[in-house]
Amino acid sequence: MPPTPDELADQLVRLLAIRLLDPLEILLDGDESVTALRDLVRVRAGRWAERIVAGDDATAVGTVMRVIATLYPDDGPFSPPPQWWGTPLGRAVAWRVGHPTATSVSYAVAGAMLGISRQGVHDLVTRGRLTRHPDGGVTPESVRDRLRARSDA
Fold first, then answer.
1. Segments of 40-131 assigned E as strands
2. In a structure prediction context, what are the per-residue pLDDT tens digits for the chain, which is 153 residues long?
3. Of 23, 48, 52, 66, whose CB count within 10 A is highest?
4. What does the angle CA 65 – CA 67 – CA 73 come to, to the nearest 5 degrees?
5. What angle do CA 133, 138, 140 make, to 5 degrees?
6. Distant-in-sequence, close-in-space partners of 23: CB < 8 Å, separation ≥ 6
């Protein structure tokens, strides 16, 4: 199930505080402008969460990609640990995008995205409910489609 907009906004506010605002506050010696930024982030995180959870696909995907690129900058591909997929942001990304950068994911990652075991993923692949990628693993689109089908039920 996708997270609620409030759950997602809360996590976004926490992540932005930890990764951006807290270090900025330290560098600026507690300048009051950081307080204003915290207030702005709280408002914007609510908007982003609404766009991700309830917006049209193009808006949601664009917002997800901006958030991921900002919160998880790296020179390599985006590869969060499996437990990340259980967070509100991870659940929202899996539900709206699948995996934002991968063309295939391992059975372990697909299981984390779906909240089931690797064996459960294997069973779904065997029954044709998830699409096996030709190079191994599972297509993120089939994981996303399965999550969407479950949330519609």
1. none
2. 889 999 999 999 999 999 999 999 999 988 889 999 999 999 999 999 999 999 999 999 999 999 999 998 887 888 899 999 999 999 999 999 999 889 999 999 999 999 999 999 999 999 999 999 999 999 999 999 999 998 776
3. 52
4. 90
5. 105
6. none
Backbone angles phi, psi at 29, to 5 degrees: 55, 45
Map tokens 């402008």 to a residue: 33
For the chain, helix, strand, coil in percent to 5 are 70, 0, 30
Is this structure's pTM higher than 0.85?
yes
Contact by Cβ (8 Å): 142, 97:
no
Please report where in the chains the tokens 């600026």 appear, as a residue. 28
The answer to whether 105 and 15 are in contact (CB under 8 A) is no
Instruction: Report domain extents, the chain.
Output: 1-78
75's torsion region: left (phi>0), alpha (psi -120 to 50) or beta? alpha
Contacts of 92 (CB under 8 A, 6+ apart): 2, 3, 8, 49, 52, 53, 64
